[in-house]
Amino acid sequence: MALRIVFCGTPAFAVPSLDHLLAEPEFRVEAVVTQPDRPRGRGREIAASPVKETAAAAGIAVYQPEKIKSDDAFDYFKSLAPDAVVIIAYGQIIPARLLEIPRLGWINVHASLLPKYRGAAPINWAIINGEQTTGLSTMRIDAGLDTGPVLLKRQIPIAAEETAPQLTSRLAEASAPLIAETLRKLARGEITPAPQDNSQATFARPLKKDDGRLDWSLSATQIYNRIRGLEPWPGAFTHFRGKMCHVWGQPAQAPGAPSASPGAIHSAGGEIFVICGAGTALRLDLVKLEGRKRVTAREFASGMHLTATDRFE
């Protein structure tokens, strides 16, 4: 008999898992719960979430409560009485009374090796902090923030040049078979939930715009990690001649090992470098000055008529 599932999710990250569950005959997705349609994009037109679009294409019933803690939402879940609720990046805190409805619980996949990087932005902060390995954890959610007992884990390496969107895409695809394996083993009683060691917990808070502001006294590697981890928002930015300037680049050895202070712009061998802390340098690849299109570092240097005294603030 197929396991009866309600799927809760909103962004594209959750779509591979929903697709996987829909394709497996041992699972029956009774309904999809997602956030209400919201204004999106530059035009701010009302649009459905990626999860809703996937569910609609598959002919699955969609429920979009404004607040999942409402009595209406409680009655909805109670009437379905699913075996399990799968929740991936849904976007609202689940009240305790809903957690008690499915017999196998609410099963979440989190993009870190819990208890490390609990919170909203585990992928970004893992890259920013220079981690070489991350992973996925499935857990049975409780009333806390990513504090529930862990069911299964998968360790996944972070490539040296991988950006947050690239790693997000890989983890989303890897989540699909892991959530299915978790459900199968839970239903067969083959998983013993493991409490998290709270003393080892770290927190991946939501990104803020100011997180993108670069401190050139950091090493080039630290700055490069921020460039990778802050894609696509808020991006890594500095200021040039009083204007915001987003930059992309990689650690490199600056010819001549200039002794200029961090933030100084140095041209050598047809390349543009920014002096960083600890005697390191970032080779600029691309630059986007406020109000202008993104250009190569050479185009930026030529267009701005860089002088020996120019620097990033």
**Order of adjacent strands in the largest pleated sheet:** 5-2-1-6-7-8-9
Number of helices: 8
Number of strands: 15
Please state the CA-atom Rg, rounded to the nearest Å.
23 Å
Low-confidence stretches: none
Structural class: alpha/beta
Q: Biggest sheet, open or closed, and with what strands and sense?
A: 7 strands, mixed
**H/E series:** EHEEEHEHEHEHEEHHEEEEEEH
CATH architecture of the largest domain: 3-Layer(aba) Sandwich
- First-to-last CA distance: 64 Å
CATH top level label of the largest domain:
Alpha Beta
Q: What's the shape?
A: elongated
Please state roughly what percent of the residues sit in beta strands, choosing from under 5%, 5-15%, 15-25%, 25-35%, 35-45% or over 45%. 25-35%
- In total, the number of domains comes to 2
Mean pLDDT: 95
Question: Mind telling me the CATH superfamily name of the largest domain?
Answer: Formyl transferase, N-terminal domain
Can you characterise this structure?
This protein has 313 residues and is of the alpha/beta class. It has 2 domains: 3-200, Formyl transferase, N-terminal domain (Rossmann fold, 3-Layer(aba) Sandwich), CATH 3.40.50; 209-304, Formyl transferase, C-terminal domain (Methionyl-tRNA Fmet Formyltransferase, Chain A, domain 2). Helix content is 26%, strand content 26%. It has helices spanning 15-23, 50-58, 71-80, 96-99, 122-128, 164-187, 220-229, 297-304; strands at residues 3-9, 27-33, 38-40, 45-47, 62-63, 84-88, 106-110, 133-140, 150-157, 237-240, 243-252, 265-268, 271-275, 281-289, 295-296. The strands form 3 sheets. The protein has a 7-stranded mixed sheet with strand order 5-2-1-6-7-8-9. Strands 10, 11, 12, 13, 14 and 15 form a 6-stranded antiparallel sheet that branches. A two-stranded antiparallel sheet has the order 3-4. The longest helix has 24 residues, at 164-187. The protein is elongated. The model has no long low-confidence stretch (mean pLDDT 95).
